[in-house]
Amino acid sequence: MTELLLPGLVGISAGFVSGFIPGIGNFAALLVIFPYLYTLDPVQVLVLYVALTTISQYIGSIPAISYGVPGESSSIPAVIESKNLKNSKQTYQAIVQSAIGSTFGGLIVLGCTWLFVDHLMLLMNFFDTKMQLFLYVFMFVVMTVIIKSNSVMVNVLLILFGLALGMIGYNKWLQTSFLTFDQPQLYAGIPFVVVMIVLLGIPEIIKNFDVKQEYKPLRKEKVRIKFNFVSSVWYSVVGFIGGLAPGMTTTMSSQLAYLISKVKSKNPIDRITASETANNAGAFSQLIPLMLLGIPLIGSEALVLNVMEAKGFNLGLISFPETFKTVSISLLVINAIGLILAWPLAKHISKLFMVNLKIVYAVIFVALISVVAWVGYSNYQLGFYMLIFIALLPIAILLRRFDTMPLVFAFLVHDRIFELIFRSVHLFT
Prior knowledge:
The protein is mostly helical.
């Protein structure tokens, strides 16, 4: 297990940044450390990702509750209810109970999954070619409706544009080239790392560059911890179900739990605890389709899947026992670390919010460009990578007002989509 220690620590650090800094989601955090991912074996990549997603949920609650700033999209209910907290004592109590709820949510879902793991593996029988194609189409439909920051038409156009970008190069299924302009370098397609960075990372940084900060010191108070076992189990189950929603996962988990808690309780601390319990449960359940079927529900999972497949590791039924065991053990350890960070150390961590975020965004911007250059240089195609970067940059600037996740996700899974379509046509004909 010692070989998993360093990837786990890197994942924890990346999750810390992802959760604490507004606008820097898990996907962008993965892009910053992308060169490091290719130095790891597939299991190490998975452990790193588990650490990143789990810690980001814990840390994201601190700025959300303390300052009303969402570190993660799943922390939006905490942002809403933070305005109803009367004083520093209630703020600290909300952070403490959220940390405990998050830990319990992760553990209860993990335990239930262990109990029903044999039945989960039977699901593979239902996911044939036609069913997998249906799931991907369903995911795209859900994206067009749920991503409210864009209109439905904009989401559809972004998906089509992402698929078109993915088609550039030689299509092995159609056995023909598409928009290569007789350029040999384009036969392999547009490098996905460039698309990820330019069309997802850069717009988010531009969008959040002018974010306003307001620092209020967080005092460590003596609080009475109120823990409702039945409610925690209930919200963990809600989070587990919400985590299976394509494209939304932890965000859907926290929103569902929050809506239910609004009916059941008028206490803002209870509502915050409910949403935070659910989003940590969803952080685990979103991994099940990936581990069991090799189907990513969100963009960051698609990126992880791409890296693991590039290393010759196929997620699915055969590898599921190994991956599930590794993820389970990692989750136990990382939940303990997350609890420490979000509870005893919350006061000290909150002081980091005094850092000028514009400087942080500028550093991340330079880091992302450096990643493009490094990957290009490693593939002996530095000029080609930078040319694609410059060509896509105006598009990124034009799209800065929109959520580009549908575009990026469509680009990431395009090859799988065409494979399933090709197989389905042969099955029907």
